[in-house]
Amino acid sequence: MAWEAEFITARIASRARRVRYEAGFPNPEEVEVYRDAFPAECVERCLILGMTPELRALMAGRCAKLVSVDSSAAAIAEYGPWVASPRETIVEADWSRFLQQTGQRFDVIAGDGIFGNLSGCYRSGSAVAGYPRPPRAGRCVRHAHGSATRGI
């Protein structure tokens, strides 16, 4: 699926109020799943796959350093300003190659509804295969959808 400007703006109910249509974003119950799934205490480095403002806002309050990665310039242009945090760095890059190319390490890796956008990386594990070594004990790589939270 191409995340072009027309597709992205079609999901927005009110640009002025920064509100998306219900089906286009995590609802309050889903945000609570994320809130429960990730450490409440501040962690050093977090990686967000995608530009989901609700998830980025939540993690900006829990991470000392937040890196949000999306391959869509249109998504970055539209949703980047929705979360104003000096802790966040936004990078335009392909998720499946970002870790391999940069060699960066993160305490938390998260994304909303990301598996359908990984083009088979989930099944092969290649989305995090470039991670130099598994996250340290107590760290997590998670995907939450609805009320189901799955650790990877």
Short structural summary:
By secondary structure, this protein is an alpha/beta fold. The chain has helices spanning 5-9, 28-37, 53-60, 73-79, 95-102, 121-124, 126-129, and strands spanning 12-14, 19-20, 43-49, 63-70, 88-92, 108-111, 140-145, 148-151. The chain starts with a helix and ends with a strand.
Descriptive notes:
- This protein has 152 residues and is α/β, with parallel strands linked by helices.
- It has seven helices and eight strands, in the order H-E-E-H-E-H-E-H-E-H-E-H-H-E-E.
- The strands form two sheets. The chain has a six-stranded mixed sheet. Strands 1-2 form a two-stranded antiparallel sheet.
- The longest helix is centred in the first third of the chain and has 10 residues, at 28-37.
- It is globular, with a radius of gyration of 15 Å.
List keywords for this structure.
alpha/beta, globular, two-stranded antiparallel sheet, disordered C terminus, 7 helices, 152 residues, six-stranded mixed sheet
